[in-house]
Every structure is written in C-alpha cells, then in structure tokens.
C-alpha cells in the first residue's frame, strides 16, 4: 500500500482531526480496501480536500489502489471547479457530505464525513507512473496541473522524514492545507515514519487551535512566513508548549529578523528550527538548512535534500562553477515532477522533466555551498535603468517597519500595497533612499487588507 502503511503498527494512530475523529494505521488499510472496491484502478478522480480524516483517507486509499486523484481545495471557486470537471472528466468525486447537494451525480460510498460520487464519465488512458495531480501554486483560474509520479511522492516522503529525523512517536500539526504541496509533505513524511498527523482547519488566532495542539501534545509545527509572523505577534516565545521540539519553515523567505529570532529561540530552548525550500514542481522540499546552522546562516535555505543536488546557471543557461556566485538555481533529484497538464491528453505523457527543474529563482551561493534566495526572475523591474528586485524591496520594508506589504508593478511604476495609512509618507521616503529611484516611480497604496491564499501565501496584485 501507499508508503507501506500496511507495514506500520496497526494500532498506532495515523491521524487525528479537530472533529475529534482519529484513524489507526490498521483502520486506514481497511478503509483503503473498501474505497478501492468502488473504483477501477488507473481512474482519474477529484478529491475536494479539507484537513480532516475523510480527505486524508481518500488520498491514501487512491494512491494505494492505483487511482489517480486531483487534490484541490473544497473551497475552490465553483466556476473553476465546473471548468476542471468539464475539461478532465473525472470518473468520481470524493467530497465532503455537505457538498453533495451541489452535484447531480450518484452517491456510491459514504465514510468519515465524505461521499464518493460517480460522475458517469468513462475511464480514459493515464500514464502508468502518474500518481496524483496538484494545481500549480500560482493557479487561480487555470486548469494547469502538476503531474506527480509514484517515485516523486515516495522519494519526497522518505527524504523529508530523513532530514527531519522523524520517528513513530512524532505528532505533527497539519495546519497547512493538504492540497498545498508543503501541507501534503507534512502528511506523507509523517505517514512514512509511522507517526501521527494532527489535522486542523483552525486558524493560529483561534483559541481552539492551541487547545488542539496542547491536548494532542504536538511535537512539530510547519508554517509559511506569514504563519511565523502571526506566531510572533501572538508572543509564541512565551507559550508553554513542552512537547514541541521542531519548527520548520518553507513557502517563501522569512525576514532576516524573524529568522534570527526563531533560530535563537530554538537554540536557547533545546528545539530545532529548520528552514526549507521547495516548489510544487519539486514535490514540496528541495533544500533545507540543518538546525545547527540556523544561527550562523541567517536567511539561508541551506543545501539540497538527500538524493538531490543544486546548481546555478547564468543568463545563457551555462552552469556557474565558481564557489561563490549568483544565478538561476537549478535542482536535480528524484522528486522533480513529470511536467504539467492542461488537458486529459497530457495525463498520458511520460517524464518530460527527467529529474531536472529550473526553479525560476535567483539565488546566491556562499563559500560554504549554502544557498540564499535573492528573488524570482519574474519579480524584477527595470525602472529608469535600475534593476529592482520586488522581493528584496518587500524584505526591506518588513525589516525596517515591521509591517506587511505587497510589491508589484511594471517597468514604469513600482506599486507598494500596505494597510497602515500613517506609514505612507515615511515609507515612500525610505524606498526612494534605499533604491535610488525617482520618487514618481513609486506609488504607495493603502488597502483594508492584503489577500492571502489558504496556505497563508501572498496573492500578488
């Protein structure tokens, strides 16, 4: 079965959710057998996911039975969902019970708050190594999907479990959405280790979230930069969490100030703080900074994960061999996904990437071989002859003013979105001074709120 769940201790708990539901590894195996009796192997299905037992069980069962799921949020905009169904024509939908009235499809199986609907669409050929599909991290209204192989997900789960040193007694907080690549990585790596995943849909600011964490004695927390910004405002360093031993961060660059503070907190309290780097196209994690380097390599993503390698290329695609250099970061490894899909015919395609991924990120490599993300290739402007990194400007603002912001624009104007009116004038002067830009090339816009997706990542304007 998927990740050898049938070889785990049957009575050990695989997952607990905040509905107080729990499932053992033995029950997960039994569920998989029952689920797969209703669907033919090598069939495409959609899972409208939530962080709960029903969603996790359906995903594990599908991969155990050779069924290929597209994992998308149950909150997916209904117009996009209908478009995806129309394009890809899945044989079944595995959805929350409370959504079943939205569809005219026949229910054929109920379990754990989810229902399996038969759409009536005929089965069509799929690539034999295609295991599951995820939306691209930037997808908002696009049918573009990332194709994962069985080797991709197995290598990712194995390697993440290895460098996090996961054990069967670990209990991870599964707060990030499971349809988000890093949220799914938390689940698969802990299932690989025979550990327990604590699935929750609660927010960090909910009292119930922290009760759930404490009652279930969570041992690790994984978050994106925004998660760590919220924790800081909640005075996380003063919280009494005796079971928490591991803090992991990914999904973007954490400000140097917060990186340093979390690294120092972990060192002082005997915990581990591990920064990671990844993309959906790399099955979540591709690099990590060992905990013992966290206080000396502020802001670094470290080196490649076990089984992978990182390199830098110049503008012409030629590898840069100098020890200390800057260029586009390229990753090689078994977790690099097969390629993209935009229609059903693409689901028959084989491995187009062949283990190599051009990340689209500009990185700096230091003399110790550690990598530091500078910014996205697509996140640079050329204003009045000056090359400006929007990511660097965001980091300058967050570090200098301790406020949230979004930077965007084009080669005529840089736009900076904030939520605090009283910072508008001083921020404008600060950016002019730091970048050397003409003041009319910068526009500061005040919004009521800055939008983020379910994983807490910024939605750029």
Task: Provide an overview of this structure.
With 461 residues, the chain is of the alpha/beta class. The two termini are 43 Å apart. A 9-stranded mixed sheet has the order 2-1-11-10-12-13-14-15-16. Helix 1 (25-36) crosses helix 2 (53-64) and helix 4 crosses helix 5 (181-192). The longest helix is centred in the middle third of the chain and has 14 residues, at 150-163. Helices cover 25% and strands 28% of the residues. Helix 7 links the parallel strand 12 and strand 13 (246-249). The protein folds into 2 domains: 2-373, ANL, N-terminal domain (Rossmann fold); 384-446, 2-Layer Sandwich (GMP Synthetase, Chain A, domain 3). It has helices spanning 25-36, 53-64, 78-88, 150-163, 181-192, 207-215, 225-233, 256-269, 390-401, 424-435; strands at 13-17, 22-24, 44-49, 68-73, 92-96, 106-111, 114-118, 130-135, 145-149, 171-174, 196-199, 220-223, 246-249, 272-277, 287-288, 303-304, 309-313, 325-332, 339-341, 356-365, 371-376, 380-383, 386-389, 406-409, 414-418, 442-446. The model has no long low-confidence stretch (mean pLDDT 94).
